[in-house]
């Protein structure tokens, strides 16, 4: 929670077209800041500018450039900034981060508290699986709930999540939901599966409580036999891309 007094202002400069793990860098950073409990952040879009490459980028009615500068700005306590700065440096790629000391003259009203994030750990041996059952039409702050949950899980450094769409089933209301040819149901079932340590899943449960109004969440013990991933290559925009598949 921000109070009047000394604070830190952070400005992050990226290109509009840059990506991080397949998503736009600025939206990924904004999701990360939101789900890490940062008091507030704003994205500003430039209409002209140049960067380290000394190439001038500008908008016009004929040619809308995707390399225009964007600035993401937020103000937080020094302790909170220290928590997120390392991850931001990784996410920003070839962009720039500026940190300035500032003074809060008037503090905002009390925000909704967010649980402190847990640090990432290596998974091996015993772990837990969390399954989240929701509806395809469920929404959270204007976007599909399952997409918002994926963003929240990623921002909290959960090891990974897979979203499954049900083709047949029923729930608490005992209405049968079924996929039919030439008919795209918007009331189907969605399952999110997450495997991580018990500690990290338990720390994420309060986030689920605030996002899932109607649904089912279950936890079960699992044994991890093998958990590995490929090394990702850095693309032109400073993000990391998966190697091409044959």
Architecture overview:
The chain has 246 residues and is an alpha+beta fold. The chain has two domains: 100 residues, Alpha-Beta Plaits (2-Layer Sandwich), CATH 3.30.70.120; 100 residues, Alpha-Beta Plaits (2-Layer Sandwich). Helices cover 20% and strands 37% of the residues. It contains four helices and 18 strands.
Secondary structure layout:
Elements: E1 5-15, E2 19-20, E3 23-24, H1 25-35, E4 41-45, E5 48-50, E6 56-58, E7 69-76, H2 78-91, E8 96-104, E9 125-135, E10 139-140, E11 143-144, H3 145-155, E12 161-165, E13 168-170, E14 176-178, E15 189-196, H4 198-211, E16 216-224, E17 233-234, E18 240-241
Antiparallel strand pairs: 1-7, 1-8, 2-3, 4-7, 5-6, 9-15, 9-16, 10-11, 12-15, 13-14, 17-18
Annotated CATH topology of the largest domain: Alpha-Beta Plaits
CATH architecture of the largest domain: 2-Layer Sandwich
In angstroms, what is the radius of gyration?
21 Å
Which residues sit in consecutive blocks of at least 5 with pLDDT less than 50?
Answer: 234-246
Roughly how much helix do the residues carry, as a percent range?
10-25%
Oligomer category: single chain
Count of runs of 4 or more consecutive helical residues: 4
What's the end-to-end separation, in Å? 49 Å
Widest sheet: strand ordering: 4-7-1-8
Extended strand count: 18
Strand residues, percent? 35-45%
Global morphology = globular
Described by strand count, sense and barrel closure, the largest sheet is: 4 strands, antiparallel
Number of domains: 2
Computed structural class: alpha+beta
The CATH class designation of the largest domain is: Alpha Beta
Q: How much is the average pLDDT?
A: 78
């Amino acid at each position: 929670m921000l109070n009047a007094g000394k604070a830190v202002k952070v400005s992050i400069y990226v290109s509009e077209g840059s990506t991080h793990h397949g998503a736009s860098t600025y939206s990924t950073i904004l999701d990360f800041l939101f789900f890490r409990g940062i008091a507030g952040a704003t994205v500003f879009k430039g209409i002209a500018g140049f960067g380290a490459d000394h190439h001038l980028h500008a908008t016009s009615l004929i040619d809308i450039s995707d390399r225009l500068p964007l600035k993401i700005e937020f103000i937080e306590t020094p302790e909170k900034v220290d928590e997120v700065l390392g991850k931001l440096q990784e996410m920003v790629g070839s962009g720039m981060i500026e940190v300035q000391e500032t003074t809060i003259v008037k503090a905002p009203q009390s925000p909704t508290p967010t649980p402190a994030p847990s640090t990432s750990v290596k998974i091996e041996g015993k772990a837990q699986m969390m399954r989240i059952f929701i509806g395809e039409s469920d929404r959270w702050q204007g976007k599909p709930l399952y997409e918002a949950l994926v963003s929240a899980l990623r921002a909290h450094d959960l090891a990974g999540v897979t979203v499954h769409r049900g083709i047949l089933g029923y729930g608490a209301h005992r209405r049968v939901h079924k996929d039919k040819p030439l008919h795209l149901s918007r009331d189907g079932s969605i399952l999110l599966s997450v495997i991580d340590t018990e500690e990290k899943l338990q720390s994420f449960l309060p986030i689920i409580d605030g996002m899932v109004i109607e649904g089912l969440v279950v936890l079960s013990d699992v044994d991890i036999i093998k958990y590995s991933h490929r090394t990702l290559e850095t693309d032109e925009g400073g993000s990391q891309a998966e190697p091409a598949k044959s």
